[in-house]
Amino acid sequence: MNGEPSSELFVLALVADADQARLVARVFAEAGDLCVVATDLAEGLARSASEVPDVVFVDVAMGEGGGVAIVHHLRAVAPNASVLALADEAHVNLATQAMALGASGMLVTPVSGDELLTAVGPVRSRIAERIERQRLEEAALVSRRGLSMAARVAEIAMHSDRSRAAGDLAQIFSEATHADTVLVYLPAGERTRQLMCVHSLGEIGDAPSFCEEMDLLNYSRNHDWDVVPLAISKERSGLVVLGSPRRGGGAEELVQLIAAQAATTFALIGEREHSHRGAMKDPSSSAYTFAYFVDVAGREIDKARRHGRRFALATIAVNAEETGAGPPSVASVERILGAVRDTDVLARVDEREFYLLLPETGGIGAHICRRRVQRGAEPDGRRGNGSGLELTMGMATYPHDGTDLSRLLRVAKHRAEASLTSVVRRLGLDRMPLGEVLDTLLWHVPEGDSVEQPRSFELPQMDMLGVAVSAVSEAMRSDRARVVATHRGGVSLGMAVKAHLREREGAELITVDLGAQPDLVDIEALALVAEHGCYVLLGRSERGGLMRAVHAADPLLVDLVVQRLGEAVGLRLLE
Length: 575
Description:
Layout: E1 10-14, H1 18-30, E2 34-38, H2 41-51, E3 55-59, H3 62-77, E4 82-87, H4 92-100, E5 105-108, H5 113-119, H6 121-156, H7 162-177, E6 182-187, E7 195-201, E8 210-211, H8 213-222, E9 226-232, E10 235-242, H9 251-275, E11 288-289, H10 290-307, E12 311-318, H11 320-323, H12 330-338, E13 345-350, E14 353-359, H13 363-376, H14 380-383, E15 391-398, H15 405-420, H16 423-426, H17 434-444, E16 455-460, H18 461-475, E17 481-486, H19 493-501, E18 507-512, E19 523-530, E20 533-541, E21 546-552, H20 555-569
Parallel strand pairs: 1-2, 1-3, 3-4, 4-5, 11-13, 17-18
Antiparallel strand pairs: 6-7, 6-10, 7-8, 9-10, 12-14, 12-15, 13-14, 16-21, 17-19, 19-20, 20-21
Helix pairs in contact: 2-3, 3-4, 6-7, 6-9, 7-9, 18-19
């Protein structure tokens, strides 16, 4: 019955006569009611206690008059049920006793179908009245809640940007529907049909951050999630996805009321953003607005497609959990701006997230920018001047990681999340010398299946050289790579890589000799930064010509290994 109140009756008949039992069952089945027949008193009493009937017919002559006694018990186990006594002319006195014990009426058998239906008429009316009263009470409650929540949605219009407004709207939908997960999708920009997940509550799993509307509808259908359009007539301002079924209590009407009010609210915010777009700047900082970022990114993608150009973008998140601070200040935003080029576009998405567009920049240049931004934002304990920001960044490049804004931002967000859980952070590797970094990774590699996750293995030295050469070949797939490798007398990774890159253009090779460092003399390392990714291979020679090593596609680990190699020989290898 889907949780809705029903006017059908649950009728329990305690009758021993087979013909009478069939009549009762047929009459109420045809009337659309549920009817159960019990042929002995014990069964009837048990059914009354467990199934809560609305009406109970009792043949008072059952069990040699025991039917009279059971009326009193029925009033105890099913106090809301109407009990009707059935008796033939010879046992009318028993029916009279039953009424004295609490039965609400009596019928002299044999009875007709019309008599049975007439007898339960008052019960049916009482239930219908209760249902209507409940409906009216729920409607009144929905109206009161709707007025309250509509007022809260109206207040959202005071926000200066859609991100903050979406956060408040997600909370309102969560309260109205008790949904475990709420996602608010709004148009990513004026020139694109893509939607952006502006705010989310609860466990969102792999829900798309950017997508076409049809992709979002298919995803929600596959996960049995509800999609609520924020629309008035044919004008749509966005979509809200509810990650669990709505509950009763008029939630459907409440949701539609909130959605209609929100559509108007976001239309107003959109008009306000459009009117301020000439300034292009976020009012709370000197970063650009998200809408301006989307417009510039769209133009950059068009130029890249027409002229074969490259560009990169990054997502930058300020980690409040690590810093324990409030939203980044204007001065903090200026620090990030000071680390990027004048031609780069830094846009503020919300209080703790920024997007960075790097025109005419490939993967290698993007990672240089990443390191520069993170160095500029390092906290006081590392730089010794001013309070810092704990940032996580993820990079994506066109066309290696995607050819549309949605795909590029998804890749960048994934890499930012992977950076947040990097082994460099989790194991505190940035406080260790190179030898201890390797030992820690060999013995404490965390489990995981992401591509950035380090893997440990053991191979003969010649096979290890083959792994290194294969990695360099993959890096050169984009014709440009920066390679740092260890080199020593005899067979080494540096020797194998140098031989492989002979007469290859586009590769910058730096070899490092660790022979003067007794604690590092048996270490072999290879670090790659290519247009489409990073890679590190770090190992130690063992007896018998074997090497134990780890390798990973973790940019932070690549940076750390290159930094430690440079420190070992007195060179600055990071840009």
